[in-house]
Amino acid sequence: MRPTRWRPTRREVLIGGTSAAMVLGAGGRAFAAYPERPVTIIVPFPPAGPTDIIARILANSLSQRLKQQFVVDNRTGASGNTGLAQAARATPDGYTLLVTSTAIAVNAAVFKKIPYDPFKDFAPISELVNAPNVLVVAAGSDLKTVADLVAQAKANPKKFTYSHPGAGTKSHLTAELLKLRAGIEMLAVPYRGAGPAVQAVLEGTVQVCSTALAAAESLIQGGKLRALAVTSGKRWFSIPDVPTMIEQGFKDFVSDTFNAVLAPAGVPQPILATLVKESRDAFQRPEVRALARKAGFDVVAGTPEQLTARIKREIPEVRELIARAGIPQQ
């Protein structure tokens, strides 16, 4: 009597195929279920700044969704280049990510040489949010409008100072654009991040701060800072009483800062696809959207292709501005 040959049932075939798909990536390479250990999110700026706020919102959401820890690691220095370079050199296995501001595009124009390529060294995931920049003064300042700022800067061209979160940031460039458009001089005082730059205004070290809105939002709402203007195309939803630069006579004066998540180039496609889906889904959830908007951001949750296009657009725009402003490349 011949032994009976085993034949898998249809259910067993389906289960086996699904299991294989979970461990096989592109080209037949095998991958364990992702993530099977904690994931580091590098932020190239100090804690409490706009980029850090968004990174922590993302980290918390991904930790919940993917049942693994996503931990923010602040690697500051060189206007963000230190952290950007560390992320670019990280092993492309999905266990190191980058959440950065517009610095990934701006620095490519501002610095003569940077230790990474914004296109070749990174895999774009999503532009998560963006927000305008804002000009703020201490609540007790006698500056009430941008016109007041311009008048005082003209009266004290060598003494009027403003803080910003780092050379070449969009906040820095926003103030330099104002100098060009208004024909004024202001002494720039750079800080290592938006938090310290805002603190300088509160302490009276400088008269004005140019920063991304998120870094100053709670202090504006709490009455410790006065916002002179936002640099959005229309009044911003979270501070509707603050006029735009356009309303105050500066035609087409729009400048925003984005925050995006990327991975080192070469991350396996199945892992990258997971990160794209989960990151975009996270910022489309009502509770996460509410957190982002509470911090002063508008949610984008864009595609990788849209993020690449934005970076490509930003670099020549910044190069043109620094040439007009006479800002030397660093």
Keywords:
single chain; 330 residues; D-Maltodextrin-Binding Protein, domain 2; 2 domains; ten-stranded mixed beta sheet
Report on the structure:
- With 330 residues, this protein is of the alpha/beta class.
- It has two domains: 28-130 and 257-325, Bordetella uptake gene, domain 1 (D-Maltodextrin-Binding Protein, domain 2), CATH 3.40.190; 132-230, Periplasmic binding protein-like II (D-Maltodextrin-Binding Protein, domain 2, 3-Layer(aba) Sandwich).
- It has eleven helices and ten strands.
- Strands 1, 2, 3, 4, 5, 6, 7, 8, 9 and 10 form a ten-stranded mixed β-sheet that branches.
- The longest helix has 22 residues, at 304-325.
- It is globular, with a radius of gyration of 23 Å.
Question: Care to give the gist of this entry?
Answer:
The chain has 330 residues and is an alpha/beta fold. It has 11 helices and 10 strands.
3D shape: globular
**What is the CA-based Rg, rounded?**
23 Å
Q: Class of the largest domain, according to the CATH hierarchy?
A: Alpha Beta
Average pLDDT reading:
89
Total count of strands: 10
List the helices and strands and how they pair.
Elements: H1 10-23, E1 39-43, H2 50-66, E2 70-74, H3 81-89, E3 96-101, H4 103-110, E4 122-138, H5 146-155, E5 161-164, H6 170-182, E6 187-190, H7 194-202, E7 208-212, H8 213-221, E8 225-230, E9 256-264, H9 269-284, H10 286-294, E10 298-299, H11 304-325
Parallel strand pairs: 1-2, 1-3, 5-6, 5-7
Antiparallel strand pairs: 3-9, 4-7, 4-8, 4-9, 4-10
Helix pairs in contact: 2-9, 4-11, 6-11
